[in-house]
Description:
Elements: E1 5-9, E2 26-35, E3 38-46, H1 59-65, H2 71-77, E4 85-87, E5 93-95, H3 98-102, E6 110-116, H4 126-140, E7 145-149, H5 154-157, E8 166-167, E9 170-173, H6 175-179, H7 185-209, H8 212-219, H9 231-239, H10 252-259, E10 263-268, E11 272-274, E12 284-286, E13 297-299, E14 301-303, H11 308-315, H12 319-328, E15 330-334, E16 339-341, H13 342-345, H14 348-354, E17 362-366, E18 371-374, H15 389-399, E19 404-408, H16 413-428, E20 434-439, H17 441-447, H18 458-461, H19 466-471, H20 484-496, E21 501-505, H21 507-510, H22 516-526, H23 542-554, E22 558-561, H24 563-574, E23 605-614, E24 619-624, E25 640-645
Parallel strand pairs: 1-2, 6-19, 6-20, 7-18, 7-19, 11-14, 20-25, 21-25, 22-23
Antiparallel strand pairs: 2-3, 4-5, 5-17, 8-9, 9-17, 10-15, 12-13, 15-16, 17-18, 23-24
Amino acid sequence: MQADAVVLLDVGNMYVPPTWIRPGAAIIYCKPALEKGIALYVVFPINLCYNEHEMILKPSIISRAQIPKPVDQLAEEIGLLPEELEAYGRSKAKVRLSVLERLQSQPNGKYILVAGITPTPLGEGKSTVTVGLVQALSAHLRLNSFACLRQPSQGPTFGVKGGAAGGGYAQVIPMEEFNLHLTGDIHAITAANNLVAAAIDARMLHEATQSDKALFNRLVPSVNGVRKFSPIQISRLQRLGIRKTDPASLTPEEINAFVRLDLDPSKITWQRVVDTNDRFLRKITVGQASSEKGQIRETGFDIAVASEIMAILALADSLGDMKNRLARMVVGTSRSGQPITAEDLGVSGALAVLMKDAIKPTLMQTLEGTPVFVHAGPFANIAHGNSSVLADKLALKLVGQDGFVVTEAGFGADIGMEKFFNIKCRASGLRPSVVVLVATVRALKMHGGGPNVGQHSAVVITQYSLLRAANGAFFLGSFRTDTQAEIDLVCQIAKECGASDALPCNHWAQGGRGCSELAQAVKEAASKPSDYQFLYNTEMSIVEKIRTIAQRVYGADDIELSPEAKTKTDYYHQQGYGSLPICMAKTHLSLSHMPDKKGAPTGFVLPIRDVRASIGAGFIYPLVGTVRGLTCCSGTVKIVLFCLKWLY
């Protein structure tokens, strides 16, 4: 009762009454592991739960038990200059983009993608593998390495899925700061997105209630007797075909065209956002106050990370590029059928100011002190699902020619990895050297015909037979309670299917040491040449690009476009958007559009109910089935590693 710390050495199932230990004491349970005849001990900090009978291991206690090194020390270790760092407290900092200019002549390191098989609703541990792998590369192979991760949304963090910092001894710390707020990037996106929404409604109100002259006086006010167009307004005049710069020289017809966007309320595509799962905001009515003079319309809220501004943040390669992309965002259509952009609203400059700090990646670290860039967080089912281009480019310069940058693609390979290859790599010009495909035996059993995995189904899943795993072994996976025979079978089948290697990993329990074999395999694979090719040519028609993805990635027989989708594809070609890449919005729970169809479904036609465009982000996104929101390349990366993930 007097001890500040109690070490339980190989106690097995011995019962330790909570009354034996002082409240607040640190409890450490050591489990032996034999390696080359030497008894090593794996240490598990334990949080005592005083419910009379049990001690409960809480993963968060692992994060809190490790004090991060000061962020300025971390920055110095990885080669950043003091003036390139903007500290947010002791453990995280923004990194200025001037680093890219300083290191422009430095060769890039090796670029590694961690992807996953079609997941269960609980996820299969890609973030944990990413962190474990960079810890192994750094601490055990002594190679410069960097992890690049997405910032998690508050929605999943407070939902079933939870945070995205990794887990066990392979996580980003401080975990709470990683999962909540971080350096405010998502809040900046929320503010910028909702500024656009406010500008839309305000513009429609003023156009409905004021004359051309009154609108012109508001848009181009006289300051000390002088009227002057802003650069944004001159750009709008030029798009209208008006080559004038003196406000006094405009004719009444030109003034009318300039001041009236004439937005069609039924064709506004821009919604407000909030970073919370608030289902009652999905559909709302605005404009009911008497001051809005009857300008009532239906709209709704999306989750903040679904904003096109998030996708722009993830794909922009400079502040100037981000500003141009923000200006190109289409928010709706006029009654005459013309697209209306954020620049037409006159807010693109304000958006860039709101986002000026968000464009800088945030520097953090893993439990073992390996550097991590956390930047951007677009979902993979309704956007492209990858962290930022800028974070990857900064990290590749900082690690140097012999170093490694490990990034992660959201959800399964059919969504996140395909979009990494065909959207992110097109935007960045970067090419991956190696792909690590993460899977679990529990997911393979589910895809092989077992029951769906839910919060409480793990015990049921682990009772399924070896045959059940074999049926689903077109992918690879592992689970802590799976038998060695299951693990061996999955490794065997993975290699027979063309994987360069298949390895069980124990990074959750052992940190980097538990991922050292995978790290060595990644190093060897990265030394071999690859033949990277995109899945489709962007000059193909929109319909043919959609069909290519559906047939070659999802295994569909064909696609079927609704009448609305056909009309939209024709319209986008007419507007000059036909050469944009495709970002499929579909369920992440199946290769098909049907979430309950597990494994590799065949004999289905993929329904495209609508086609929309994120012009600022730079992609067309077809809506598959009811979703709002594995050959991905013809040559792709020659070396694909399969990683068995131990789940605890």
